[in-house]
Amino acid sequence: MSGASVLYDVPGPKARARNRVYSVLGALAVLGLIAFAVLRLYAKGQLDPKVWEIFNYAGVRTGIRDGVLTTLQVFAVAAVLSLALGLLLTVARLSEHQPIRWLATGFIELFRAVPLLITIYALWVVLLSNRDALGLTGSQPQFWALVAGLTVYNGSVQAEVLRAGINAVPKGQREAAYALGMSKTQVMTTVLLPQAIRAMLPTIISQLVVTLKDTSLGYIITFEELLYTARLMSTNIIVNGNDTYIPVIIVIGSIYVAMCLALSALANWIERRGRRARTGIEVAPAAEPVAAADAAEGAAAPAGTKD
Known about the structure:
Layout: H1 13-43, H2 49-52, H3 58-93, H4 98-113, H5 116-129, H6 131-134, H7 140-168, H8 171-179, H9 184-199, H10 201-214, H11 226-236, E1 238-239, E2 242-243, H12 245-279, H13 289-300
Antiparallel strand pairs: 1-2
Helix pairs in contact: 3-4, 3-7, 3-11, 4-7, 5-7, 7-9, 7-10, 8-9, 10-12, 11-12
């Protein structure tokens, strides 16, 4: 059974040769598509060096910088609030009080089912119509509508992630904690939640990556985040009679990819540290066989006897 897989049969010589042929054909097809796209972009003048020189302009760089900072600001606020809301909804959904449990379940299911774009737009309309009563000025209605929409949606998802992690903790640990006289709050905060967060940390970070990408939905409510800034630049900057959609899309897309990869790298680093924390206790070295035998013999010898 060594080297065999329980999921599929190990391919034979003919299957391996056929897989190599398919791999080569697939790679050639992908390279052909890339070459075709590059030729089309060249024919349309999108690869002209003058088109790419727009990123040397101070105004363009400043706009991209401000867009990145605004995006990160929205993400930071929404990430913290969604984690806090997710924790609150998790506790409420696991409550022994039925009205609280029903309310939390309804909230979670509602905002998980409604498209995030509709939620953000609805909140923006509400905040915009009550701007004076809430004391909001400038772009604050757009900012808080985007943050609130990201919070309620991602908080609902994070609540389900944490609930799954808590339910995965062996019931014996909960029963042992109650047997020691711990209260429900103590059991939740010191036994269940720490293990659930550690077990579900990769999924939590993955949802935070989704939160970061969903900040781009702010363009629909004219909030000046990174995607909205890119849209303005590509529409207003014309070079040699051509728009600059392709260069702007490539650069802005690369920035989004870089931010998501950085967040994923942070998640991997935290997970590695968590693994080291679980296995970082050094085991005491075993005693030498001769020394252990002598110690056992000395312990078994009657008191007052000598060799």
